[in-house]
Amino acid sequence: MPEQIDQIKRDFEAEAKDIRTADALEDLRIKYLGRKGHISNAFSLLAEIPKEEKPKFGQELNKLKKAVESQYNTLYESLKKGKGKDEYLDLTLPGRKPFIGRKHPLNQVSDEIKSIFKSLGFTIEDGPEIETDFYNFEALNMPKSHPARDMQDTLYITEDIVLRTHTSPVQIRVMQNKKPPIRMIAPGRVYRRDTPDASHSPFFHQAEGLVVGEDVTFADLKGVIESFACQMFGEDINVRFRPSFFPFTEPSAEYDFSCVFCRGKGCRVCKNTGWMEISGAGMVHPNVFKAVGYDPEKYTGYAFGMGIDRIAMLKYGINDIRLFFENDLRFLNQF
Ligand code: DAH
Known about the structure:
By secondary structure, the protein is α+β, with helices and mostly antiparallel strands. 39% of the residues lie in helices and 19% in strands. Helix 1 packs parallel to helix 4. Bound molecules: 3,4-dihydroxyphenylalanine (DAH). Residues 166, 168, 208, 246, 249, 279-282, 303-305 line the site of 3,4-dihydroxyphenylalanine.
């Protein structure tokens, strides 16, 4: 008998350990504490025991019953605590998947641009989105009367404070704070007065590039842009420069990549030209160097712009810039 009592106790404890649901607990109760359960059965065995041993085993059995009941009650309470009064915590249910956030596609492309330029020895710089007229225009060789100011539909906060229309003012801030050599890019958000449509948004993203040193040439500019194009879109991408005008560079150019969809053969997206416009670039204008106190006789440099939204659209084949800003999770979850 004592071994039997011990055995029942051990079995109950072993089974109780694995109980996770109310149903399983009820089965366990019936199995041990029920009318025909192990403990009842053990009591009925008392009849076969010699008279003088009966009280002792009776006591042992009562102890067992109490212990099992008490463990059962503890289990019952802990399962009940899981949820509201009549619910139980069912730990066998499959878990809820936690919602995992991800980087916005523009951040992913911006990170990729940064990492490519970092590998070419560029630093990453930052500047304010609310700018003064001086940094956004004046120091970039666009005095108040300059017609080039009309090229950009500026959002003014006061007569002298604007939402920056491009990331070029970061060039000025960096040159004011550092001596050459400089190799930097400055990614960030810019603002223009535009009505949103598939290719326009009142805010979008650019990265400005600037390299200044003693023997920096247009050939260096071409090499860096070409290296960027190949790392971003593949080794077979070609780059071409077309003469253009920007007040802060002389000579100035616009640069194109061969179409990333047809790889230059000509398709609907590139209107059969085989090329896609990317942005502007050029050699830093001497007046810009003068505005930051650099000697234009000593230093030369190149600068370039690049549209981050545009590059992301090319990279992922997106035909509407507004998708980036609507925060529709069905769109964003694809990246
Ligand atoms: N800031 C120009 C824009 O917003 C882009 C640009 C053109 C930047 C030529 C440059 C450059 O640094 O040299 O359209």
